[in-house]
Amino acid sequence: MRVSSESELAEAIRDASGPLTVMGGGTRPVGRPVDGTPLSVAGISGIRLHEPGALTLVAAAGTPMTEIEATLAAAGQRLPFEPMDHRALLRTEGSPTIGGAVATNASGPRRVLAGACRDSLIGVRFVDGTGQIVKNGGRVMKNVTGYDLVKLMAGSHGTLGVLSEVAFKVLPRPETEATLVLHGLPAEQAVAAMSAALGSPYEVNGAAHLPDGRTLLRIEGFAASVAYRSEALARQLAEHGRADPVSAHDSVALWAGVRDVAPHLDEPGDVWRLSVKPSDAPGLAARAGGAALFDWGCGLVWLLRPEGEDLRARLGAFQGHATLVRASHETRARIAPFHPEIAPIAALSAGLRARFDPRGILNPGLMG
To answer: Do 270 and 123 reside in the same domain of the chain?
Structure first.
Protein backbone atom coordinates (compact mmCIF):
# COMPACT_ATOMS: atom_id res chain seq x y z
CA MET A 1 0.00 0.00 0.00
CA ARG A 2 1.46 3.35 -1.08
CA VAL A 3 0.01 6.69 0.00
CA SER A 4 0.68 10.06 -1.60
CA SER A 5 -0.63 12.54 0.98
CA GLU A 6 -0.93 12.97 4.71
CA SER A 7 -4.71 12.59 4.55
CA GLU A 8 -4.34 9.31 2.66
CA LEU A 9 -1.85 8.15 5.27
CA ALA A 10 -4.24 8.96 8.10
CA GLU A 11 -7.08 7.13 6.33
CA ALA A 12 -4.92 4.08 5.67
CA ILE A 13 -3.93 3.81 9.33
CA ARG A 14 -7.49 4.38 10.56
CA ASP A 15 -8.79 1.66 8.23
CA ALA A 16 -6.04 -0.86 8.96
CA SER A 17 -7.38 -4.16 10.27
CA GLY A 18 -3.98 -5.57 11.24
CA PRO A 19 -0.27 -4.86 11.59
CA LEU A 20 1.45 -2.47 9.18
CA THR A 21 5.04 -2.62 8.00
CA VAL A 22 5.95 1.05 7.68
CA MET A 23 8.64 2.02 5.17
CA GLY A 24 10.01 4.94 3.20
CA GLY A 25 12.60 4.06 0.60
CA GLY A 26 12.96 0.54 2.00
CA THR A 27 16.73 0.90 2.39
CA ARG A 28 17.05 0.47 6.18
CA PRO A 29 15.53 -2.88 7.26
CA VAL A 30 16.91 -2.81 10.80
CA GLY A 31 15.17 -4.54 13.70
CA ARG A 32 13.04 -7.64 14.08
CA PRO A 33 11.16 -8.61 10.90
CA VAL A 34 7.59 -7.31 10.95
CA ASP A 35 4.78 -9.46 9.58
CA GLY A 36 2.36 -6.82 8.36
CA THR A 37 0.84 -5.11 5.36
CA PRO A 38 3.49 -2.89 3.72
CA LEU A 39 2.71 0.82 4.05
CA SER A 40 4.99 3.06 1.99
CA VAL A 41 5.17 6.83 2.51
CA ALA A 42 7.61 7.33 -0.39
CA GLY A 43 4.78 9.01 -2.30
CA ILE A 44 4.53 11.80 0.30
CA SER A 45 7.40 13.70 -1.21
CA GLY A 46 8.72 17.16 -1.94
CA ILE A 47 10.46 20.07 -0.25
CA ARG A 48 7.82 22.26 1.39
CA LEU A 49 10.02 25.16 2.47
CA HIS A 50 13.65 26.17 2.20
CA GLU A 51 14.73 29.48 3.64
CA PRO A 52 18.51 29.70 3.22
CA GLY A 53 18.74 32.91 5.24
CA ALA A 54 16.91 31.32 8.16
CA LEU A 55 18.89 28.06 7.84
CA THR A 56 15.62 26.15 7.70
CA LEU A 57 14.39 23.26 5.56
CA VAL A 58 10.97 21.59 5.67
CA ALA A 59 10.30 18.48 3.60
CA ALA A 60 7.76 15.70 3.24
CA ALA A 61 8.95 12.50 4.86
CA GLY A 62 9.20 10.55 1.61
CA THR A 63 11.49 13.07 -0.08
CA PRO A 64 14.64 11.32 -1.39
CA MET A 65 17.87 12.27 0.33
CA THR A 66 19.36 13.06 -3.10
CA GLU A 67 16.78 15.83 -3.56
CA ILE A 68 17.42 17.21 -0.08
CA GLU A 69 21.19 17.23 -0.59
CA ALA A 70 20.97 18.81 -4.06
CA THR A 71 18.70 21.60 -2.85
CA LEU A 72 20.94 22.40 0.09
CA ALA A 73 24.13 22.17 -1.98
CA ALA A 74 22.75 24.71 -4.47
CA ALA A 75 22.45 27.17 -1.55
CA GLY A 76 25.87 26.30 -0.12
CA GLN A 77 24.32 24.41 2.80
CA ARG A 78 24.04 20.87 4.18
CA LEU A 79 22.45 18.76 6.89
CA PRO A 80 24.73 18.93 9.94
CA PHE A 81 24.51 15.29 11.00
CA GLU A 82 25.97 13.52 7.93
CA PRO A 83 23.33 10.75 7.68
CA MET A 84 24.54 7.25 6.84
CA ASP A 85 23.46 5.55 3.63
CA HIS A 86 22.65 1.96 4.67
CA ARG A 87 22.24 0.50 1.17
CA ALA A 88 25.72 -0.91 0.65
CA LEU A 89 26.01 -2.35 4.16
CA LEU A 90 22.52 -3.87 4.17
CA ARG A 91 22.64 -4.79 0.47
CA THR A 92 19.38 -3.02 -0.28
CA GLU A 93 18.23 -0.93 -3.21
CA GLY A 94 15.86 1.99 -3.56
CA SER A 95 16.30 5.60 -2.53
CA PRO A 96 16.86 6.66 1.10
CA THR A 97 14.34 9.23 2.32
CA ILE A 98 14.59 12.06 4.81
CA GLY A 99 11.85 10.46 6.90
CA GLY A 100 13.84 7.24 7.07
CA ALA A 101 16.86 9.18 8.31
CA VAL A 102 14.72 10.64 11.11
CA ALA A 103 13.00 7.35 11.96
CA THR A 104 16.38 5.68 12.45
CA ASN A 105 18.13 8.78 13.84
CA ALA A 106 20.80 8.15 11.19
CA SER A 107 23.89 10.11 12.23
CA GLY A 108 27.38 9.98 10.77
CA PRO A 109 30.93 10.91 11.82
CA ARG A 110 30.14 14.61 12.33
CA ARG A 111 27.96 13.68 15.30
CA VAL A 112 30.92 14.26 17.63
CA LEU A 113 30.64 18.01 17.01
CA ALA A 114 27.30 18.70 15.29
CA GLY A 115 25.13 16.25 17.23
CA ALA A 116 22.78 13.54 16.02
CA CYS A 117 19.89 13.79 13.58
CA ARG A 118 17.49 14.54 16.46
CA ASP A 119 19.61 17.55 17.45
CA SER A 120 18.99 19.20 14.05
CA LEU A 121 15.31 18.28 13.93
CA ILE A 122 13.05 21.18 14.93
CA GLY A 123 9.58 20.05 13.85
CA VAL A 124 7.56 17.01 12.81
CA ARG A 125 4.15 16.06 11.50
CA PHE A 126 3.08 12.43 11.85
CA VAL A 127 0.08 10.15 12.01
CA ASP A 128 -0.29 8.05 15.15
CA GLY A 129 -1.70 4.54 15.43
CA THR A 130 -5.28 5.80 15.66
CA GLY A 131 -5.04 7.76 12.41
CA GLN A 132 -4.78 11.13 14.15
CA ILE A 133 -2.52 13.78 12.58
CA VAL A 134 -0.11 15.23 15.14
CA LYS A 135 2.15 18.29 14.79
CA ASN A 136 4.95 19.24 17.15
CA GLY A 137 7.75 21.79 17.02
CA GLY A 138 7.86 24.33 14.26
CA ARG A 139 9.77 25.85 11.40
CA VAL A 140 11.99 28.09 13.49
CA MET A 141 14.39 27.08 16.24
CA LYS A 142 12.80 29.26 18.93
CA ASN A 143 9.57 27.22 18.82
CA VAL A 144 10.02 24.89 21.81
CA THR A 145 6.51 24.92 23.25
CA GLY A 146 4.65 21.80 24.33
CA TYR A 147 5.88 18.21 24.67
CA ASP A 148 9.07 17.41 22.81
CA LEU A 149 7.65 14.82 20.43
CA VAL A 150 10.25 15.98 17.90
CA LYS A 151 13.06 14.25 19.80
CA LEU A 152 10.82 11.31 20.62
CA MET A 153 10.09 10.53 16.98
CA ALA A 154 13.77 10.51 15.99
CA GLY A 155 14.93 6.91 16.31
CA SER A 156 11.46 5.48 16.99
CA HIS A 157 11.57 3.40 13.77
CA GLY A 158 7.93 4.06 12.95
CA THR A 159 6.63 2.40 16.12
CA LEU A 160 4.99 5.53 17.61
CA GLY A 161 3.74 7.21 14.46
CA VAL A 162 4.34 7.49 10.75
CA LEU A 163 6.16 10.68 9.77
CA SER A 164 4.63 12.85 7.07
CA GLU A 165 6.77 16.01 7.35
CA VAL A 166 10.05 17.00 9.03
CA ALA A 167 11.72 20.36 9.63
CA PHE A 168 15.45 20.91 10.17
CA LYS A 169 17.96 23.53 11.01
CA VAL A 170 20.74 23.37 8.41
CA LEU A 171 24.27 24.76 8.30
CA PRO A 172 26.50 26.41 5.70
CA ARG A 173 28.73 24.08 3.73
CA PRO A 174 32.40 24.70 4.62
CA GLU A 175 34.83 25.99 2.04
CA THR A 176 37.12 22.98 2.38
CA GLU A 177 38.18 20.14 4.63
CA ALA A 178 41.36 18.30 5.56
CA THR A 179 42.09 15.01 7.25
CA LEU A 180 45.18 14.04 9.22
CA VAL A 181 46.12 10.36 9.14
CA LEU A 182 48.12 8.61 11.86
CA HIS A 183 49.42 5.16 10.91
CA GLY A 184 49.79 1.94 12.85
CA LEU A 185 48.37 2.94 16.22
CA PRO A 186 46.93 0.19 18.41
CA ALA A 187 43.32 0.88 19.38
CA GLU A 188 44.22 2.03 22.91
CA GLN A 189 46.67 4.64 21.61
CA ALA A 190 44.21 5.65 18.90
CA VAL A 191 41.68 6.46 21.65
CA ALA A 192 44.24 8.71 23.34
CA ALA A 193 45.07 10.48 20.08
CA MET A 194 41.44 11.00 19.16
CA SER A 195 40.55 12.21 22.65
CA ALA A 196 43.40 14.73 22.52
CA ALA A 197 42.26 15.94 19.09
CA LEU A 198 38.60 16.25 20.09
CA GLY A 199 39.58 18.09 23.26
CA SER A 200 41.80 20.53 21.37
CA PRO A 201 40.68 24.03 20.29
CA TYR A 202 40.91 23.06 16.59
CA GLU A 203 37.25 21.99 16.10
CA VAL A 204 37.87 18.43 14.96
CA ASN A 205 34.55 17.08 13.67
CA GLY A 206 35.55 13.57 12.69
CA ALA A 207 37.65 11.05 14.64
CA ALA A 208 37.82 7.43 13.49
CA HIS A 209 40.14 4.42 13.64
CA LEU A 210 40.04 1.92 10.78
CA PRO A 211 40.68 -1.84 10.89
CA ASP A 212 43.89 -1.32 8.87
CA GLY A 213 45.39 0.78 11.69
CA ARG A 214 44.83 4.24 10.24
CA THR A 215 43.49 6.91 12.58
CA LEU A 216 41.60 9.74 10.86
CA LEU A 217 40.99 13.26 12.18
CA ARG A 218 38.95 15.77 10.17
CA ILE A 219 38.87 19.58 10.23
CA GLU A 220 36.53 21.75 8.12
CA GLY A 221 36.10 25.47 7.45
CA PHE A 222 37.76 28.28 5.50
CA ALA A 223 40.90 27.20 3.65
CA ALA A 224 43.33 29.36 5.62
CA SER A 225 41.83 28.31 8.93
CA VAL A 226 41.84 24.63 7.98
CA ALA A 227 45.53 24.84 7.01
CA TYR A 228 46.47 26.56 10.27
CA ARG A 229 44.45 24.22 12.49
CA SER A 230 45.70 21.09 10.70
CA GLU A 231 49.33 22.09 11.16
CA ALA A 232 48.79 23.00 14.81
CA LEU A 233 46.97 19.72 15.49
CA ALA A 234 49.71 17.70 13.80
CA ARG A 235 52.26 19.31 16.11
CA GLN A 236 50.13 18.60 19.15
CA LEU A 237 49.81 14.92 18.21
CA ALA A 238 53.53 14.41 17.52
CA GLU A 239 53.88 12.05 20.50
CA HIS A 240 51.51 9.63 18.71
CA GLY A 241 53.48 9.65 15.48
CA ARG A 242 53.54 11.60 12.24
CA ALA A 243 50.16 12.96 11.13
CA ASP A 244 50.03 12.99 7.34
CA PRO A 245 47.54 15.35 5.65
CA VAL A 246 45.41 14.20 2.72
CA SER A 247 43.74 16.30 0.04
CA ALA A 248 40.21 17.58 0.39
CA HIS A 249 39.08 15.20 -2.36
CA ASP A 250 40.60 12.18 -0.62
CA SER A 251 39.23 13.39 2.71
CA VAL A 252 35.66 13.37 1.37
CA ALA A 253 36.08 9.79 0.14
CA LEU A 254 37.63 8.61 3.41
CA TRP A 255 34.78 9.94 5.52
CA ALA A 256 32.09 8.63 3.18
CA GLY A 257 33.67 5.23 3.80
CA VAL A 258 33.62 5.73 7.57
CA ARG A 259 30.01 6.94 7.45
CA ASP A 260 28.82 3.94 5.45
CA VAL A 261 31.06 1.34 7.18
CA ALA A 262 33.04 0.59 4.02
CA PRO A 263 35.50 -1.86 5.65
CA HIS A 264 32.65 -4.32 6.33
CA LEU A 265 30.68 -3.92 3.09
CA ASP A 266 32.02 -6.84 1.07
CA GLU A 267 32.88 -9.13 3.97
CA PRO A 268 30.60 -12.06 4.92
CA GLY A 269 29.10 -12.09 8.39
CA ASP A 270 26.81 -10.09 10.65
CA VAL A 271 27.51 -6.47 11.55
CA TRP A 272 26.96 -5.16 15.06
CA ARG A 273 27.01 -1.56 16.27
CA LEU A 274 28.22 -0.80 19.80
CA SER A 275 27.66 2.52 21.57
CA VAL A 276 30.10 2.65 24.50
CA LYS A 277 32.47 4.84 26.46
CA PRO A 278 35.50 5.50 24.24
CA SER A 279 37.85 4.17 26.92
CA ASP A 280 35.94 0.85 26.94
CA ALA A 281 35.87 0.39 23.17
CA PRO A 282 39.28 -1.23 22.57
CA GLY A 283 38.76 -3.83 25.29
CA LEU A 284 35.27 -4.73 24.10
CA ALA A 285 36.46 -5.00 20.51
CA ALA A 286 39.28 -7.30 21.63
CA ARG A 287 36.84 -9.49 23.58
CA ALA A 288 34.55 -9.69 20.58
CA GLY A 289 37.31 -10.47 18.09
CA GLY A 290 37.06 -9.81 14.37
CA ALA A 291 37.45 -6.59 12.42
CA ALA A 292 36.42 -3.36 14.16
CA LEU A 293 35.79 0.14 12.82
CA PHE A 294 35.81 2.85 15.51
CA ASP A 295 33.97 6.14 14.95
CA TRP A 296 32.92 9.07 17.15
CA GLY A 297 36.32 9.06 18.86
CA CYS A 298 35.76 5.36 19.73
CA GLY A 299 32.29 5.98 21.16
CA LEU A 300 30.87 3.95 18.26
CA VAL A 301 32.22 0.55 17.21
CA TRP A 302 31.20 -1.38 14.10
CA LEU A 303 32.05 -5.08 14.54
CA LEU A 304 32.05 -7.83 11.93
CA ARG A 305 31.10 -11.17 13.49
CA PRO A 306 30.23 -14.71 12.28
CA GLU A 307 26.68 -15.18 11.05
CA GLY A 308 24.13 -16.02 13.72
CA GLU A 309 26.34 -15.25 16.74
CA ASP A 310 24.79 -13.53 19.76
CA LEU A 311 27.47 -10.92 20.45
CA ARG A 312 25.84 -9.83 23.70
CA ALA A 313 26.20 -13.33 25.11
CA ARG A 314 29.86 -13.38 24.03
CA LEU A 315 30.65 -10.00 25.61
CA GLY A 316 28.67 -10.43 28.80
CA ALA A 317 27.64 -7.38 30.81
CA PHE A 318 29.08 -4.03 29.76
CA GLN A 319 28.15 -0.37 29.90
CA GLY A 320 26.56 0.55 26.59
CA HIS A 321 24.37 -0.84 23.85
CA ALA A 322 24.88 -3.49 21.18
CA THR A 323 22.64 -3.34 18.10
CA LEU A 324 22.50 -6.04 15.43
CA VAL A 325 22.39 -4.02 12.21
CA ARG A 326 23.07 -6.55 9.45
CA ALA A 327 21.97 -10.16 9.70
CA SER A 328 19.69 -12.63 7.99
CA HIS A 329 15.92 -12.57 8.43
CA GLU A 330 16.19 -15.70 10.59
CA THR A 331 18.91 -14.26 12.84
CA ARG A 332 17.01 -10.99 13.36
CA ALA A 333 13.94 -13.02 14.35
CA ARG A 334 15.96 -15.10 16.85
CA ILE A 335 18.27 -12.46 18.37
CA ALA A 336 16.81 -9.14 19.52
CA PRO A 337 18.46 -6.58 17.19
CA PHE A 338 18.03 -3.73 19.69
CA HIS A 339 19.70 -3.89 23.08
CA PRO A 340 17.23 -4.99 25.78
CA GLU A 341 16.03 -2.08 27.88
CA ILE A 342 16.28 -2.02 31.66
CA ALA A 343 12.93 -2.46 33.40
CA PRO A 344 12.11 1.24 34.10
CA ILE A 345 12.93 2.27 30.52
CA ALA A 346 11.02 -0.70 29.11
CA ALA A 347 7.97 0.35 31.12
CA LEU A 348 8.22 3.91 29.75
CA SER A 349 8.60 2.61 26.19
CA ALA A 350 5.58 0.34 26.56
CA GLY A 351 3.54 3.20 27.96
CA LEU A 352 4.46 5.47 25.06
CA ARG A 353 3.57 2.82 22.50
CA ALA A 354 0.24 2.20 24.23
CA ARG A 355 -0.48 5.93 24.08
CA PHE A 356 0.52 6.57 20.49
CA ASP A 357 -0.39 3.18 19.00
CA PRO A 358 -3.07 1.63 21.24
CA ARG A 359 -3.92 -1.07 18.67
CA GLY A 360 -0.27 -2.08 18.31
CA ILE A 361 -0.28 -1.94 14.50
CA LEU A 362 2.74 0.24 13.67
CA ASN A 363 5.82 -1.93 13.05
CA PRO A 364 4.81 -4.18 15.98
CA GLY A 365 7.74 -6.02 17.56
CA LEU A 366 10.38 -4.28 15.43
CA MET A 367 12.16 -2.84 18.45
CA GLY A 368 11.12 -5.56 20.90
So the answer is: no
